[in-house]
Amino acid sequence: MTFDLDKLVRANVRRMKPYSSARDDFQGKASIYLDANENPFSHLFSRYPDPHQGELKAKISALKGTQPANLFIGNGSDEAIDLLIRAFCEPGRDNVVIPQPTYGMYTVSSETNAVEIRPVSLTSSFDLNAGAVLATCDSHTKLIFLCSPNNPSGKVLSTEAIERLLTGFPGLVVVDEAYIDFTGMPGWVPRLREYPNLVILQTLSKAWGLAGLRVGLCLASPAIIQVLNKIKPPYNINAATQQLTLEALNYPENMMREVSELRGEREKLAASLQNLPGVNRVFPSDANFLLIQVPNARSVYERLISVGIVVRLRPALLLYGDCLRITVGTPEENQNVLRALSEILSPSA
Ligand SMILES: *Cc1c(COP(=O)(O)O)cnc(C)c1O
């Protein structure tokens, strides 16, 4: 298999010139800035944010053990997903392959961009069947979206199966590692140099607890990152987000402490759910949520809502039917959800 990034990029994207601001020509420190029609009086956020997110990229890439040139920052990973589709998939002609069930945004972004979706089923243990994925690809397949740990199953996808796709598929293999910090595993970032077609998505929305700021990461070769930079809205990461994220990143030990507590809670919650009469199945999870199979999941879901507890209903998953996905909460929240479930599922109720 040969990988040719230039051939993969849409022709219009390859040809276009990106939007350029004066801050692209001049990156030093000036005494007077009259280039961007900003309000000159002193307000907290009167100036446009750094379009290159220089400081933020330096900090995040150091934390991830990579280089700023390997990093794209999006307004959530959802922006990176959308930009990948728009950069590489010709509407009405190209397609993306998506092993299912998985995160919904790959499908939503593909449909928004009029890009054909080719679904493939994960195995009954929610693992990846690399042969089936490769058999679904054709010469117009540009992207394969993998989610590991997978949402909603919670399980990491097999390394060997992903390696088979990376070596056997000439397009981009996107591995969404939104939950990687909960796995205790290194994930795919240390292997970026091995695979020119590997694209990794991560986010500060989950383990880092910054969902409200919208910071998504895309890690890939500098050539792929340049394509995304070329088409991104220039000021996609606002100044408040850049500032507050830089501050939060100073305390990785907070993140690690919370992750470690949540992993402990995950195991306790899984064991308690397993022992709850009426719970048919608790799927093994490497993430900060648990997928469970209960009879009449939809009515259980509605009864939980009626007592003020919101979980996620995941309908018609493979052979398991309707399931519930429960985020691991604080110890107290987990106790409450267990108590509510045990009342709802008890035969006398
Ligand atoms: C939560 C989640 C994301 C995060 O998206 P953001 O836009 O960065 O908040 C990405 N991928 C998956 C699979 C998720 O579950």
Overall structural class, as computed from helix and strand content, comes to alpha/beta
Biggest sheet: strands, sense, closure?
Answer: 7 strands, mixed
User: Which regions have little confidence, pLDDT < 50, spanning 5+ residues?
Assistant: none
Average pLDDT metric? 96
Rg over CA atoms, rounded to whole Å, is 22 Å
The global form is globular
Order of helices and strands: HHHHEHEHEHEHEEEHHHEEHEEH
End-to-end Cα distance: 59 Å
By DSSP (H or I, 4+ residues per run), the number of helices equals: 13
CATH superfamily of the largest domain: Type I PLP-dependent aspartate aminotransferase-like (Major domain)
Total domain modules: 2
Strand order of the largest sheet: 1-7-6-5-4-2-3
What is the count of β-strands?
11
